[in-house]
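Exercise (ungraded).
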Amino acid sequence: MKSKSETFCLKLVIAYDGGAYFGWQRQPNGMSVQQRIEEVLEKLCGQHVNVYGASRTDTGVHALGMVAHIEWSKISLAIPELHRALNALLPEDLRVLAIARAAQSFHARFDAVSKLYRYRILNSPIGDPFRRGASWFIPQKLNVTAMREAAAFFVGKHNFSSVAVNPGYERTTMVRHIHRCAVIKKSDEVHVEIEGDGFLYKMVRTIVGTLVEVGYKRRTSESVRELLKSRDRRLAGQTAPAHGLFLVRVRYR
Amino acid sequence: MKSKSETFCLKLVIAYDGGAYFGWQRQPNGMSVQQRIEEVLEKLCGQHVNVYGASRTDTGVHALGMVAHIEWSKISLAIPELHRALNALLPEDLRVLAIARAAQSFHARFDAVSKLYRYRILNSPIGDPFRRGASWFIPQKLNVTAMREAAAFFVGKHNFSSVAVNPGYERTTMVRHIHRCAVIKKSDEVHVEIEGDGFLYKMVRTIVGTLVEVGYKRRTSESVRELLKSRDRRLAGQTAPAHGLFLVRVRYR
């Protein structure tokens, strides 16, 4: 009798500095985070292992708590050993923070119920050499109160066509449920934290770009209500640069 | 009658990520911080301007508050304008935090009465993609209490031959006065803060490398007393890597 090859599902929590990566998802133009992890897993177990991420972060976007899952069959490496070996072989800008067994049916993307993103703006007259890769430097003083008022309009279940790019692969609905959109002053930084059940392509960065225009007093807080109704991307602000954005956390049931 | 060219002395406070620089001081092997600033000043005023720094930080060492002075004669640029123009032309890893007029006799190096250095150790089991260029990652748990006991032996007026490299250009005395040597636990980091009237070549990093051996329990706190007496560099710990070291502040009378 042949022994059945046993596989089990592992949940990984991953942090990365996105600066050197062409985003999470494997693609032909350059190195992605997914590809880097898959290459190291292949070295460790001698065959290709698919890594399924909860979210496709764009080129340059960072993660503090990306979640992914793999089907793992190599039992010669215990989980803590796999964890140490992975971090030993991965580059320093990419760390596996935790690995744990998950239910056999667990899927990092389809089971996610919400994601929290944080966008960091460095709002001081002079930049900071040590935060330049991890924040959007805006020297002009932002009106945080106005930004906060505007942010409230994004909360709820809306069609977000006006603050997203439809790259073709999005599902037909442009409706998402945003649970929280907070503008937080933190010493010389302004953070925008957005939590929701899902996000359209470039949605968080377009929301931030629009809130910054409110912070500049270039548009009113009220105008955001009209913007959402319009479903017209041309009326929104610029897409905020990728290097200020962090995927903070993914929630599951 | 020829008009006398009026010059005045400006004091600059400078922050930089040392990662891309061959230290502060101009030298033939690569770009230094001093050279970068002098090049931009030359663009702004049409002639070479010497920048005198308080300290020669080594390749890869960072600064939060380097102090320098220049002799400035171009009166068409007011000081706030010079400040803005400098930061506009300097790269993002190098910022002039402040410029102010100083006494005509002010000398950034010779008038300094003390310098404060901070060494950051990231002491957590897994590294951090966002602190990898600004801390020494040590996964093994350090004994901070033992390090603190050892640090106390460095305080005072001592011959520091055993924790420094004599590169030939040092003044003959190896005696320095250390006012403070503190080991501080700050969430998942251990900081070593050293303030003194002057430092020998690689002295701070050798002190840190030695304290880390104490933190590993590879040597006793007491052994540091013997080390100082020995004046033998071979008995000290390794030179801690440059990317954890920050020149924090320079004090003047």
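Further reading is listed at the end of the chapter. For now, observe: The interface with chain A takes residues 15-17, 62, 87, 92-97, 126-130, 132, 134, 137 of chain B (CB under 8 Å). The radius of gyration of chain B is 20 Å.
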